[in-house]
Design a protein that fits this description.
Helix content: 55-70%
Radius of gyration: 18 Å
Distance between the termini: 45 Å
Largest sheet: 2 strands, antiparallel
Number of strands: 2
Strand order of the largest sheet: 1-2
Order of helices and strands: HHHHHEEHH
Length: 155
């Protein structure tokens, strides 16, 4: 097999293309949201807490698909920045319930338009019909392969 054929194979491999899409998505996020000093994972954590105030760390990990070790580190960083708080659960003091602080809610409100713009920018090369098909197919791939993730989502 010629070198050119092997290179073309790489650029048709779904795993390679998904990895490249991830790199592009992260780079686009940082371009658009750099002023907020927030990573995509930190955004996902804040958004998850914003959608489910009082969620605990284990539930949050499952809800946003971030492994337990990573989410623990992210929560610590966000708590040190004053963006979220932890409170002991009334029924089980070992469980810590998470909530956004006023500063965290404010940051989330301010960053959301930029995050939405990132999504539009990522899908800009596609027509409206292609966008819908892409999201539908990508969701199908993710859903059907969820169990293969290091941090599977729970519905």
């Amino acid at each position: 097999m010629a070198k050119k054929d092997r290179a073309e194979d790489l650029f048709q491999m779904p795993g390679h293309l998904i990895r490249r899409c991830h790199q592009i998505a992260v780079g686009t996020f940082h371009d658009a949201c750099g002023d907020f000093d927030l990573t995509p994972v930190q955004f996902a954590v804040l958004r998850g807490i914003g959608l489910r105030p009082g969620i605990d760390q284990v539930e949050l990990s499952r809800a946003v698909g971030i492994d337990r070790t990573t989410i623990g580190d992210v929560i610590l960083r966000l708590e040190k920045r004053g963006l979220l708080g932890r409170a002991a659960d009334a029924a089980d003091r070992r469980v810590k319930r998470l909530s956004l602080t006023a500063a965290g809610a404010d940051l989330l409100d301010r960053v959301l338009p930029s995050v939405r713009a990132v999504q539009d920018r990522l899908l800009a090369p596609l027509s409206p019909g292609e966008r819908a098909a892409f999201i539908r197919l990508l969701t199908k791939v993710v859903d059907r392969n969820n169990e293969n993730s290091r941090a599977p989502l729970e519905s």
